[in-house]
Amino acid sequence: MASLTSHCAASSLSFPSIYGADFQTIQASLIQNFSTFISYSNNPNSGDVNAQDLHLCNVTITHTHPGTHDKVTTKIFLPIQPPWNERLYTVGGGGWVAGLHPIIDDRMYAALAGGYAAVTTDGGVPSSNVADDWALLSPGNVDLYALQNFASVSINDATLAAKSIAKSFYGKAPKYSYFSGCSQGGRQGIMAAQRYPELFDGIAAAAPAIYYAQLFVSAFFPQQVMNEMGRYPHACELDAMTRAAIEACDAEDGIVDGLVANPDACHFNPFAIVGKEIDCADSGSNLSISEAAAKVAEAAWNGSRASDGSFLWYSHGYEANLTADESPVQTTCSANGICTGVPRSTWTDWIRLFVKKDAKFNAVSMSRKEYAETFIQGVREFDSIIGTSNADLRNFQDAGGKMITYHGMADMSIPFRSTRHYYDAVREISPNVHDFYRLFEAPGLSHCTGGAGGQPLKLFESLVQWVEQGVAPDSLEATNASNQTNLLCPYPKRAAVNDSIGLLVSDQTRCR
Ligand SMILES: [Ca+2]
């Protein structure tokens, strides 16, 4: 331990050597006796971590790709106490953050508490979570190198750099390398499996923002429909729609428990409850559900559509909260009852900055024709850069890689059916996909964390077991805030129950 402590200095560490990258600076400093508690909700692929008395070498390196005028910053935590477990853990980002962020630091500490060397990167873009800070070089011109860094290259660079720095520090390279992330981080993990198939032995890629170019334009669709109508229903109307849909579909999975574990078995027609009187907290009085609300619910559930009604992309499950902050049908209503749409900035960022290349573009004014063209243009221009849609994972499989994804069926940011579409596409190419990649759909789970369903707290642990002991996860347990545990099954299996035992884990719950 003493020798590692004295080795924690820039002068003791060698610069990594990565083709196409030029490493420029390296800093190293000791962090001693550091303790922190990381809740599972901030580290969604693992349970709570109580990190005590950590002792680590905190390394920051920067590099550029000569000629592109970029600067990528990568942070590496090297454990001294607890001792290194000879494994590397790459931590993914979220939103417009590739990884380097105080929230992600917590995930680094959580990994470190388990003995892992941990690494994350800013992806060569500011960690402000504001795409306006980097997306455009000038009006009309996207910074494609920055987007490429953010999308893929930085994950490879950072992980290779961390492997090299770990070897320099400990005198040996990591035995195993893992990736863990959710949302943007989930996308990064799947991108690594697609493009850098030998980089990781195991990848935990939750609620992934794959099909990136489709995702954000499609997520904007309910707002588009409201804009076209000039009608913005009260949140209470959409909440009533959601309650009615859950009520109608709840029992299809075998148990009335507030969860819709078998959404494919049920189609709820939102127009069936138009005119129903509801007590509306937002308006302070009773109102009857409007036809506009039904149209918006249909937009949120049945997929985004072009002018001729043709399908563009998936939208949300019935369990998704449509009206919460950053949800697809978020609106705001003034005291005089006039409501307007509140589109999530992530979606309009994509439309404004990347597809339209105009920071001032206002998506509210789009016709349906322009909307559909925006969708298609985004896919044409950016799918190969950040789409993360390539379903050919044969090289990842051949390299012995293992990957696990879970996706909440109540996810109001990224539709679970988009991930299912990807998994089905992988299976078309690799009929034995189950041998190296498993998808767990989680009823009632919101985006990455939260909601009435449960969180798969042992996802990462299961991944390590699969990689190192060859024990594939045949199910995952998902625990909710009330400490109820549901059984998650690898798609296309679902939890099946005898009589009224429910989806709660018991001797009688099985994956079928
Ligand atoms: Ca149910």
What can you tell me about this protein's structure?
With 512 residues, the protein is of the alpha/beta class. Among the domains are: 174 residues, no CATH class; 151 residues, no CATH class. Helix content is 31%, strand content 22%. The strands form 7 sheets. A 9-stranded mixed beta sheet has the order 1-2-3-5-4-8-9-16-17, sandwiched between helices. Strands 6-7 form a two-stranded antiparallel ribbon. Strands 10-11 form a two-stranded antiparallel ribbon. The longest helix is centred in the first third of the chain and has 27 residues. 54% of the residues are buried. The protein binds calcium ion (CA). Calcium ion binds next to loops.
Q: Briefly, what is this?
A:
The protein has helices spanning 2-7, 102-113, 144-170, 184-195, 212-219, 221-229, 235-249, 291-301, 345-355, 368-387, 394-398, 416-429, 459-469, and strands at 22-38, 49-64, 72-81, 87-91, 117-121, 136-138, 141-142, 176-182, 202-206, 277-280, 285-288, 304-305, 311-313, 331-333, 339-341, 402-408, 437-442, 476-479, 485-488, 495-496, 510-511. The chain is of the alpha/beta class and 512 residues long. Calcium ion binds next to loops.
